[in-house]
Amino acid sequence: MRGIGPVVASEQKATQQLSTIQRFLQYFHPYRREIPIALTLVLLGATNQAIGPFFLGWSIDQLIAQGNLKGLVQMLILLGLVYLTGMWAIRGQILRVGSIMQRLLAQLRQDIFIKIQSLPLSFFDQSEAGDLMSRLLNDVSTVNQAFGQTVAQMLGNFFSLIGIVIAMLLINLQLGLLSNLAIPLMIFTTGLFARWARVRFRVTRKTIGELSARLEEDIGSVREAQAFNRIQLNIEEFSQLNAANRDANVQAVAITAAFLPSIDFLNTLATAGVLAYGGYLAVTGAATVGVVTSFLLYVQQFFRPIQILSQFYTQAQSAFAGLERIFYLLDEPVRLQDAPDAIEMPPMKGDVVFEHVTFGYTTNQQVLKNVNLRAQPGQMVALVGPTGAGKSSIINLILRFYDVTGGAVKIDGIDIRHVTQASLRKQIGIVLQDNLLFTGTVAENIAFGSSHATQVEIEAAAQAANVHEFITSLPQGYSTQLGERGAPLSQGQRQLISIARAVLINPRILILDEATSSIDTRTEALVQAAIARLLVGRTSFVIAHRLSTVTQADQVLVVQQGAIVEQGTHAELMAQQGVYANLYSIQLGQVSAQTDPTPKP
């Protein structure tokens, strides 16, 4: 019974690889009309390679041995035409097959990107951006190296091998059988090395993904690494991952390095066999010199396709390992999908209701427990409470970044699971504590959610967000190019541009997640004024850690451990002398202590 486990595992791996190949072949379907043309060119090139040695051997026996100079000249002209035709066919097949492969790989990249964009946030909670980038770039690049450049050559050599085998058996059955004795040995050798290579290349694909993930993380946090003096530790940890990737690649290369000399040895052995036995047949008169010459040429051509096919097979193991990772990502279920009968969200009034909502990011832990709330159109609702209480989860459910595990979230009486996600989010604006700006112009960043906005509309949004004067002071104004994450703008300037972005989409529901933190006092005044202008007539949800910013809210919801423990206006909650009043008093005391110059014991 001990041997059953490895056998089952081997069968599972074989089934998995077969499934990967079948899945990859589906990408050839759009090119089904072009493939026959490419195969015709491949067959033409292979035929030309197969008949060349036959004509040479025949010329030795029938023309050179007979002293037929005229016939020899004619044969040379014929051979020239044959090889020119073969050269044209090979060029055509490389262009045709190369074009098909590059378009196929472009579609594969497109599918990966579309999949990544459509996956729910719960997937990214458990995935690393660097590993996803590795699948999109490194794994597809590996497939390109294995198939994109060599598949035409591989097909040509495959058909050439078939033609050469047939030609050898027709010319001389005994020598043909002797030459073909090497094929079983080569198949066994290739299968053995490919099995080892497949395991090694899977490790290389895994380690390069881990390395890319760590690199992306370390580059994004280089400021924090320098501030906390972690540079040397980061270097050491990266070196360990880099060494693991190096060792995996060295082991894969070692397998390839042992494989190619093995094929060369079989090539030499077969050539020696043909030379010895063919020479014996020629001496005894059982074969002509031309036949032996043709066979020596065929043997050289015979092993060249096998070498290329065998080398391609080992390289393909790395590509299949990459394809397994790619298809694993493409098969990742999109758990948050529009219902088949989902409708477009009508123009919102802004009436938001949570009915007995429960929610958890995992099945083992609930983040929200029986939450009930209602925000009437135009109301400002403040969410306060300690970190991890569930405030951001409430916001995420309104945007339907996640689905509730119990209860319902309704807007204007419609369960948001019954409308399309795009039509829902189109009418909701969001301003975060640390808004992300993208590489591009200032105008492009403002119009991020409204790609068809005119310049007049963009400038009007900027004026409403109190950022127009600053933008016009930039070297190229609205055409000023920003770097990664909005560099070199300050935090406050990025915040004002993000507010202009929200103004431009004119949302009916607005979400503010600590939008005035981490900025200086002067900029905060501009941001507060822009937000006050933005809030007019809109339902808004404000997450605030500084309670002084929510005293004018129509409702204040105190969230603790996933439940709303208090609800009311600022004055009502202060009068209750409960959790909110305690939090407010503590913050007010801290502010007083910071502004009071009197020394405290």
UniProtKB/TrEMBL annotation:
Q: Which PROSITE patterns match?
A: ABC_TM1F, ABC_TRANSPORTER_1, ABC_TRANSPORTER_2
Recall the taxonomic lineage recorded for the source organism: Bacteria, Bacillati, Cyanobacteriota, Cyanophyceae, Oscillatoriophycideae
Q: Which UniProt keywords apply?
A: ATP-binding, Membrane, Nucleotide-binding, Transmembrane, Transmembrane helix, Transport
Q: Supply the source organism for this entry.
A: Oscillatoriales cyanobacterium SpSt-418
Q: Write one Gene Ontology MF term.
A: ATP hydrolysis activity
Q: CDD domains per the record?
A: ABC_6TM_YknV_like
Its transmembrane ranges are: 37-60, 72-90, 154-171, 177-197, 274-299
Which coarse location class describes where this protein primarily resides?
Answer: membrane
Source domain of life is Bacteria
Query: What protein does this entry describe?
Result: ABC transporter ATP-binding protein
Membrane topology category: Multi-pass membrane protein
